[in-house]
Amino acid sequence: MAVGPDGVLHIVGVSNGEMKLISSSNAQQPGSEIVWDQVTTIDLGGVLNVTPPVNPQGLMGQAWVDVDQNTGDIYVLASVTRNDESGDPSDVMFARSSDGGASFSPPVRVNTDPGTEAYQWFGTMSVAPNGRIDAVWLDTRDADNQIDSVLYYSYSEDGGLSWETEEAISPSFDPSIGYPQQNKMGDYFDMVSDDEAAHLAWVNTINGGQDVYYSRISPQILSSPRVLPGLTRLDIYPNPFSDRLHVDLDLDEPSTTSIKVYNLLGQEVTSIIDAELSGIQKLVWNAGDQVAGLYLVEISINGIKEVRKVLLQ
């Protein structure tokens, strides 16, 4: 639930399997009989699911709505099971409305992990007074069992048109602690943003049981690229590119090295290298047979991963 700068109340939820936004312009008037002036169907590219394997008797997450108090733009975010060809069990998806909720933009995938098997669950959103949109979620991308989860964070400063590459900001934990006596982890998530940081209440099992924590999350944590062990240089160029993408590495010791390219559906497009490497390496991806668009280059050094975005024109 959120209130816009014009006093209009907006609530988001699911009705008959569809995501809906309902709005009331007179809920702000004391003693009035509330009238719901507008009901809008929202396409988030998937469905809000329940009882997923990662949370057997619980939720994948809840739907969130918030409003930019400067522009009046309405934002909706949720962890959804994709209904497209990717078949991803759970992505964090976002849509915006610039016309008071009468219509919404096509959905945008916030998480950029390659592959289509990880769960991005308990997606949560809030908007700062300066218009920055903060988003967090639990993520199983680094877990072999697709259960152990890590808190990830991203933000947008252009109304959700683009998002900073997300980063893990918590230790990994096992949400199944307590199953099956308590065969779920409760969605005790809520977040409020100010101009300096996001303030998050969230649940995890880091201490060996289900506890609710508070975290203050500053956007500056995403300002520095992840340092991959043994890698002294990484250049990916040109970007944007039109045919051939160059990847230059300098490894100061022998390292298990994998570089893969994925599309925005999380589907692997190609593997540039998967080998034990050391020293200076100059690699090339010939993308002449690929359609123009945004791609994700995943660099893995001894199991530690970094993802870079590249644009094929």
Q: What structural class do you assign from the helix and strand content?
A: mainly beta
Question: How big a fraction of the residues is strand?
Answer: over 45%
Give start-end ranges of low-pLDDT stretches. Answer: none
Number of helices: 0
CATH domain fold name of the largest domain? Neuraminidase
- Overall number of domains: 2
Overall mean confidence score, pLDDT: 92
Helix content: under 10%
Q: Tell me how many strands there are.
A: 21
- The second-level CATH architecture of the largest domain is 6 Propeller
Spell out the helices and strands N to C.
EEEEEEEEEEEEEEEEEEEEE
User: Globular, elongated, flat, extended or rod-shaped: what is the shape?
Assistant: globular
Keywords: Signal
InterPro entries: Secre_tail, Sialidase_sf
Pfam families: Por_Secre_tail
Organism: Aureitalea marina
Structural features, described:
- InterPro entries: Secre_tail (IPR026444), Sialidase_sf (IPR036278).
- Pfam families: Por_Secre_tail.
- There is one protein chain.
- With 313 residues, the chain is mainly beta.
- It folds into two domains: 2-221, Neuraminidase (6 Propeller); 231-312, Macroglobulin (MG2) domain (Immunoglobulin-like, Sandwich), CATH 2.60.40.
- 0% of the residues lie in helices and 48% in strands.
- It contains no helices and 21 strands.
- A hairpin with a 5-residue loop joins β1 and β2.
- The two termini are 40 Å apart.
